[in-house]
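Researcher: Please translate sequence to structure tokens.
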Amino acid sequence: MAYLKFNTRLSSLGKLDRKFLLGFQKEFQKILWNAIGINALCFFDETNPKAVEIYKIPKGVYNFKKRKYCTFPLFTFSRDALLKAIKRADSDTLVKVLVITDAPLYKRNVDGPIFSDIECGNDIAIVSTSGMKGYPRGPKSIRQRLLKESLYLVGRMIGLPNCMNEGCAMKHAKNIDDIDKKNKAYCNDCLNRLYGGKI
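Model: Translation complete:
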């Protein structure tokens, strides 16, 4: 990785709880430090670490037939967060945006449930807690699943491909069981790609 710093600007859409989001941010910050190994920051607001603004889902993205929200217009809505984060960042900082929502998602031309999506430019990803119901605590909780899927999305945004190694955060999850089997870390092969100039 050529950058000295990595910023993940978090944004929230829907009806998620602020306490839940702050707990996620705090734990995800630690996971990023461990996984990426460079100066990685994770925040909702560049100027106030404790601020969490939860935006309403924009009108016109709900599909009444599917009873889900299309990911494509949500990327457009989230581009302002990316531009603000880039404007405040240093030139040696890589900036990406991770949108967290509780809305059920669908992707155009894709059948079946999805937990997340990533835009073509790999600058913005969206992840949903919808469909991640689990036990209140432990490895199968909603937050633990959200952390694993978010680490997968960050990996995709910085250029890591899907991985076939068991337990790796970069292994694509088709269902909840697949997420539960993953670790909150990249495998050695993925780390070698990340720092060996292979991406």
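Researcher: Any highlights?
Model: Helices lie at 18-36, 71-88, 142-157, 176-181, 188-195.
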